[in-house]
Every structure is written in C-alpha cells, then in structure tokens.
Write a structure and sequence with these properties.
The protein is of the alpha/beta class. The protein has four domains: 162 residues, Alpha-D-Glucose-1,6-Bisphosphate, subunit A, domain 3 (Alpha-D-Glucose-1,6-Bisphosphate, Chain A, domain 3); 116 residues, Alpha-D-Glucose-1,6-Bisphosphate, subunit A, domain 3 (Alpha-D-Glucose-1,6-Bisphosphate, Chain A, domain 3); 145 residues, Alpha-D-Glucose-1,6-Bisphosphate, Chain A, domain 3, CATH 3.40.120; 79 residues, Alpha-D-phosphohexomutase, C-terminal domain (TATA-Binding Protein, 2-Layer Sandwich). Helix content is 42%, strand content 18%. Strands 1-3-2-4-5 form a five-stranded mixed β-sheet, sandwiched between helices. The protein has a five-stranded mixed β-sheet with strand order 7-6-8-9-10, with helices on both faces. Helix 2 packs across helix 3. The protein is globular and about 65 Å long. The structure holds 2-acetamido-2-deoxy-1-O-phosphono-alpha-D-galactopyranose and zinc ion.
C-alpha cells in the first residue's frame, strides 16, 4: 500500500549500522549520536504513531541523553498522562528499532495488527498525534529530521516544541490529553508551565523570606534558558521572593554540556563543579542535562563539601507535607509514604521510619518502579539518591485537601499551601526546576540553612563501585535488588562480609544502563565502607 511504500522510502537515509543491537532500557534508547540513532528515532516515530492510535491520545517523544556526554543522544516516549511508556511496549520498541530498513514497513504493519487487534478497522481512520522536543545537543536538529520523516510517512499530525526540558515535555503531553477534562493539568504551552509554577510558588511563600540567594548549576544544558525564562514569572523582593543565580548556562558550545558540572558530576564526584566560586554556607544546587535531576550542596567554613542528594530532598519534602497535613487537619485521612531504592542511605531510611514515623517502600532501580509505588500512597514522595523524583497526590488526597473546610486562619493557609504544592510539584514526572522551588519554599518555611537540613540525620559513609565482569546477565537480583539469587552462593558470601562491619550493608546488581555490575556498600566509618565494597567486588569478579 501507499503507507508501506512511504515508510520504506522515508527510512532510506537512515539504515541500521551493521551488528548494532538496540534496547529500550530504563531511560529509553541511548547511545553515541552517530551510532545509528537516526534509524532508531525513525522507528520510534512509528511506535509513537501506533501508540497514539492505540490510546487514542497524544504521545510525546523526547530527544535527550540527560546527564551523558555531549556526543551521546537518546530518545524516550511519553504516555498520555505524561508518564513513561508502558512497560509492555518497551519490547515492541526494541523489536522495531532492530528491524532493518527493507523489513520495517512490514514490521510496522504487523505491530499495528498485533497491538490493535479489535480496534483495527477504526484504526486506520483514527488520527494519531505526536508532540516532541529535544535538549541542546548538537545532534538534536538532525535527529528531529529523522523523526519527522517517520511521522510524515504515516501521516501523523505533530507539534515540534523545539527545545524543552524533559519534564516540560511530559507536562505538555499531560496538559494536551486532559484539556477540558475534570483532571485538567494546565495550559499546554511554555507560558502555561511557568505561570502554573509561579502562581503556586507565590501562594506557598505567603510572605515568607528565602535567606540569601540560590546558585543553580544548569550543566550547560536546556535547564539554563528555561530557568531564566521562569525567573521572569517569579517574585524577586525580599518578602516572598527568590533570588536565583544561574551558572553553567553555556548552551552555545555544545561540548560544554555536562562537562565538569551538573547533578551527575556533583553526585558521583562528591564535589562542586571546579569553576564554582561560592562562599562557605552558600546554597547551591545542580540540574542535569535535561533538568530532571536535582542535588543540593554547600561548602562549610573548613572547606568541607556537603551533598544533599535525592534522599535528603525526599525527607525534606515529607517532613513539610506531614506537618502541613497535620496543621490543615487532614492527616487522619491521608497516608503519606516515601519510596526509595536500595541505593538510599541506610540513615535516611531509618530517619523516615523511626523519627518521621512514616512508611518506606523500597523498589528496584528505575523511576517507573518508584513512580508506581508512590502512586499507592495518598501522598507518595519518591526520589532516587541521584536526585530524580517528585511527589504524587492521589485523587483521594486532592479531594480531601480541596474539600476540607478550614476552622482557623492557620488551617486555611495550610490547606491553600497543600493545594499549591499539588501545582508546584510536577505530578507527571521528576522535575528539577519544580523540585528546586519546592525545596526552597520548605527551607523558607522552616527557616533552615543547608546545615540545619543536613543535621536532621547523618549519612552513613558509603561507597559505590562499578565492576567489569564477563557476563553481567548471570547476576539476578531479588527483594528490590537487595539480594542476589544467582549466581548460587554469592549472596551468602556477601552476607558474611556485611556481618564483619558495624552497620554493614552491601548489595550487588547488574546495571541496566551500562555493561557493569554495581556494588554498593555502607558502614559506620568510611574506611570500613570502602573495605566492604572492595570485598563484595571480589565476590562477584
Ligand atoms: P543503573 O545503570 O541500572 O544502575 C542508573 C542509575 C539509576 C537510574 C538509571 C537511569 C545509579 C546507581 N543508577 O541505573 O538510578 O537513574 O541509571 O538513568 O545511580
Ligand atoms: Zn536527566
């Protein structure tokens, strides 16, 4: 048919390089931009079209490689509610990406026939709609050409949003699909995104004061121009305002992206970007290359660096939300919980359970797992230690908060603040810019410095190492990746190592994004955490 011929013709410039194997992983497809990603993106265009028809909704495509080096790129799909692509479709995307050009049209037809069994007749008439955006990488515009070629081949209507942060694209998708519904998320435009956030920020601030300024390292990525745009919408005075200093905002030299800066650099190197000249005690934070990760940090008088990572942001948010629901008088109706992965520091988990007295759920690595677990609470706070996370409010929570009748001015303000939190915190996906504003208002409410925040509990010393092994597929983990069930005997050995240390905890799991096995260890002293990590690494080598 014409359609199939158009697919075959459209993909001609994008052959699959020989002996390449692609996989839709936890972060979509990711690779060197010149390693056949154009072919992969063309197939993603087809998947997006099929998915849009299947769900009868707008689907999003984001072209980014997040915190990875500047010459990498990648692509991920966004489902109708602004969440990540449903897991069962990851396999379909993988199959299509690995299909050579001469078989692609047929593969697309098969895919449509298989996934849309009952709907098939209406399907061909059903319009599909796709929206997409990209980060600042140099390869972005070319990859967009490949995506458009696929969408044109299958006659899909599309909107190109140009440059956006990953969370902004998720926001657009959710807005478009909820337009004129009782679950309307906002106006599907950049302006709509900034206005929603700024309005919520002003409401929660309620005349409080944010101490000093906040320095934001934007990883020389798309977060820089977007944050500068948001600043225009935010109040700036001493009372109720915020003073944001944007640094590492060079999006003109593409090679500067994520280079010695950004959230991943700060988290893994445990130090501030070298070009920083912040003063002791200054509040600093870093975003990653597509602005969905956030970490805070400061240097004290003795020049010691202190990191406040995703675990800390989660506990900060949970403390605030637990307090607010209590003041608002809705705490009895709402179950608040925190979701972490095994990489969360043991001290953070203990603090949540013993001091905050809130439940903790541990899930496997990968934001989609945390997101789903958080959705089971009324207020679910989830963060990976690396700084990716958000807070989810259930329909029950939103109803309880919006319908509660305040009995005092204090209750009224608490209820208004909770309502504003629902808008300030990006409910679709972890959003570094929104998380940063949230952390800033919480610190202002508590009159906390970063040191006060850090003193809520003291992290256990820990060590993360990547171990190269022959075949990482033999490492099968269970119990939220905290235990190995294969190879046989390995877990028993790890257990024996842990028992030798005070507060010793360690686990090994195959990475989902790199060809390594990661070993995490913590113990009551730094030397011991390092020794334990080295011992466990020996076990799995
Ligand atoms: P892997 O490579 O599976 O450990 C890493 C991060 C995850 C998550 C994913 C997706 C660690 C230890 N792991 O996963 O938290 O962010 O990448 O980007 O940081
Ligand atoms: Zn990212």
């Amino acid at each position: 048919s014409d359609l199939l011929a158009a697919i075959t013709k459209g993909v001609e410039p994008y052959p699959i390089p020989e002996r390449k194997k692609y996989q839709y992983g936890t972060a979509g497809f990711r690779m060197k931009a010149n390693a056949g990603l154009d072919h992969v993106i063309y197939t993603v265009g087809l998947i997006a079209a099929a998915r849009s028809k299947k769900r009868n909704a707008t689907i999003g495509v984001m072209i980014t490689a997040s915190h990875n080096p500047a010459d990498d790129n990648g692509v991920k799909l966004v489902d109708p509610m602004g969440d990540m692509l449903e897991q069962s479709w990851e396999g379909l995307a993988t199959t299509l990406a690995n299909t050579p050009n001469d078989k692609l049209a047929k593969a697309y037809e098969d895919l449509v026939n298989e996934t849309l069994v009952d709907e098939i007749r209406q399907l061909h008439e059903r319009p599909a709609k796709v929206v997409f955006a990209r980060d600042t990488r140099a390869s972005g515009p070319y990859l967009v050409t490949a995506l458009k070629a696929a969408l044109d081949a299958v006659n899909v209507e599309y909107t190109d949003y140009g440059l956006l942060t990953t969370p902004q694209l998720h926001y657009m998708v959710r807005c478009i699909n909820t337009l004129n519904s009782p679950y309307a998320f906002g106006e599907p435009s950049e302006k709509g995104y900034y206005e929603k956030m700024a309005h919520a920020f002003k409401t929660i601030m309620h005349g409080r004061t944010i101490q000093g300024h906040i320095t934001v390292d934007c990883a020389n990525g798309v977060g820089a121009p977007k944050l500068k745009e948001l600043i225009k919408y935010l109040p700036s005075g001493k009372e109720g305002g915020i003073d944001i200093k944007v640094v590492n905002d060079d999006v003109v030299r593409p090679e500067a992206l994520n280079l010695e800066c950004g959230a991943d650099y700060v988290k893994t190197k445990q130090r501030a970007p070298p070009n920083f000249n912040a003063q002791p005690g200054d509040r600093c934070c870093s975003l990653d290359g597509d602005a969905d990760r956030l970490v805070y940090y400061y240097t004290d008088e003795s020049k010691t660096f202190h990191l406040l990572d995703g675990d800390r942001i989660a506990t900060l948010g949970a403390v605030f939300l637990a307090d607010m629901t209590r003041v608002a008088g809705v705490d009895q109706k709402l179950k608040i919980g925190i979701v972490q992965t095994a990489y969360a520091n043991g001290a953070a988990t203990e603090y949540v359970e013993k001091v905050l007295k809130l439940p903790v759920t541990i899930t496997p690595t990968g934001v989609k797992h945390l997101h789903h677990a958080a959705a089971r609470y009324d207020i679910g706070v989830y963060f990976e230690a690396n700084g990716h996370g958000t807070v989810l409010f259930s329909d029950n929570a939103i109803k309880a908060i919006k319908e509660a009748v305040p009995k005092s001015p204090g209750q009224k303000h608490a209820l208004e603040s909770l309502c504003a939190c629902i808008d300030l915190i990006n409910q679709a996906v972890g959003d570094a810019i929104s998380d940063m504003l949230f952390a800033e208002v919480v610190l202002a409410h508590k009159s906390w410095t970063l040191e006060n925040w850090r003193n809520t509990y003291i992290d256990l010393p820990n060590r993360l190492v990547a171990v190269a092994v022959n075949d990482r597929s033999i490492f099968k983990a269970t119990d939220a990746e905290r235990r190995l069930e294969s190879p046989k005997g390995a877990q028993e050995e790890i257990d024996r190592c842990c028992q030798m240390y005070v507060k010793g905890r360690a686990f090994a799991r195959a990475s989902g994004t790199e060809d390594v096995v990661r070993v995490y260890a913590e113990a009551h002293s730094k030397t011991e955490a390092e020794k334990l990590a080295a011992q466990v690494a020996e076990v799995i080598k």
